[in-house]
Amino acid sequence: MTNKTSRVQPAGSLAQVARRRRVRMATLAAAFSLFALYLAWHEAYDPPTRHDDESPITQALADDPAQSTQPAATAAADPGLVKRGEYLARAGDCVACHTADKSRPFAGGLPINTPFGTIYTPNITPDPDTGIGQWTDSDFMRAMQQGIGKGGERLYPAFPYVEYTKVTGQDVLAIRAYLNTLAPIHYAPPRNQMSFPFNQRWLMVFWNMFNFTEGRFVPDPKQSAEWNRGAYLVEGLAHCEECHTPRNILQGLKTSDRFSGATQAGWHAFNITPDKNSGVGNWSDAELAGYLSTGAVPGRANAAGPMAQVVEDSTQYLTSEDVTSIIMYLRSVAPVIGGETHPRDQWGMPAHDVTALRGTEVTTVNGAQLFVANCASCHNWTGQGVGASAAGAYPALIHNTTAGASDPNNLAMVILHGVSRTTKQADVLMPAFGAELTDDQVAAITNYVTKQFGNPQAIVTVDTVAKLRAQQQ
């Protein structure tokens, strides 16, 4: 007889195998359930092949969502409601994101670049075929407050419904009433260019779990009416965090560093917390109000890039009461120390390079020479500007937040793309030099300006300038 030794599996190992099997089965069941939910959702809503996407609209107080199931009428609207809606739409700067071509205001088509692809903003004119003319008030309310489009599709957060959810129903409907009075423009923006899996809108359900909390603004009874108004505007309609708050790995707002500054399309939106070095804690209320109303504060800052557009299209139209409320609220947020040891607007001294350059043959890329040749006619070769504090003055580069920033990219972007800012006080224009100067020349001027008039530790490389030049504006 032959003895055979049988191998007995230990009881603990059998239990582990069974546990792993149950985990696998549970995972498969969960994946199948999610897929089934997606199919059911798709069948229920049957969204159209191409979607009207995302982009801003604006503001609010207590709400009762409209239950209308018919498209809103474009005529016979209450003039007072329309006027209020126009003001709120300006406060939310809707026109900026929904206008790619100024001859087609609110018709969309503006490309918004994200790490996941390019989103084109939708047409929000009352055109029935390519705009929102067939949307009901309920459709519009749901998009603003829940981030869900007319066909049930999840909107991408390039449309800041994360903030607009705080806007009251009354204000949402006022904005809709105003949009209904716009001239309908028949224009279909390009389709989004999102790579898989980010083109699967249903995945926004999971993004929302981590980055979105629906709900209207609730006033703080411990604060004044002015503070609450400022909080309502900043956190909701004006969606200031979209540019001034950094983002997490999922591109949601990093709430632990609110208002501490972030970069958008190559432009750095500065820290606007009350920190005295990194933020605006050393600005007076009058200076902050002047900046929001005109875009210029002599000896401090001059709005350029996206902020210039915000001033031009939005904040210059705010009432003095709303501007004061915004400032009051921003004064109360937690200061964030950004690492600066010196305020951005406290750097620099006049230059004397012109005398040193006389009779000197320059054979290399020389920042001082390039500055004198391209910039001095407006900013003076000393860097002290021309026109003092007049509304249309050419600003000084000394005591200038752009030149004094620890990140010199905004200065390079201004040289590349210029400045265009039209307000009630002045029409400000600085030409773009991107087509005239090479990357190494732009870098040389930038580094000369920061060294002489701004933060000498801020240095930009030629490679960085090339990357900034490539940023779509």
From TrEMBL:
Cofactor: heme c
Domain spans labelled Cytochrome c: 80-183, 225-334, 362-453
Chain sites annotated for binding heme c 3: 375, 378-379
GO molecular function terms noted in the UniProt entry: electron transfer activity; heme binding; iron ion binding; oxidoreductase activity, acting on CH-OH group of donors
InterPro entries with a match to the protein in the record: Cyt_c-like_dom (IPR009056), Cyt_c-like_dom_sf (IPR036909), Cyt_C_IC (IPR008168), Cytochrome_c-type_DH (IPR051459), Membr-bd_ADH_cyt_c (IPR014353)
Residue sites binding heme c 2 per the record: 240, 243-244
Subcellular localization, as worded in the UniProt entry: Cell membrane
One GO location term (cellular component): plasma membrane
Principal place of residence: membrane
Cofactor binding annotation: Binds 3 heme c groups covalently per subunit.
Transmembrane domains' residue ranges: 23-41
The protein's name: Cytochrome c, mono-and diheme variants
Keywords: Cell membrane, Electron transport, Heme, Iron, Membrane, Metal-binding, Repeat, Signal, Transmembrane, Transmembrane helix, Transport
Annotated heme c 1 binding sites: 94, 97-98
Pfam families: Cytochrom_C (PF00034)
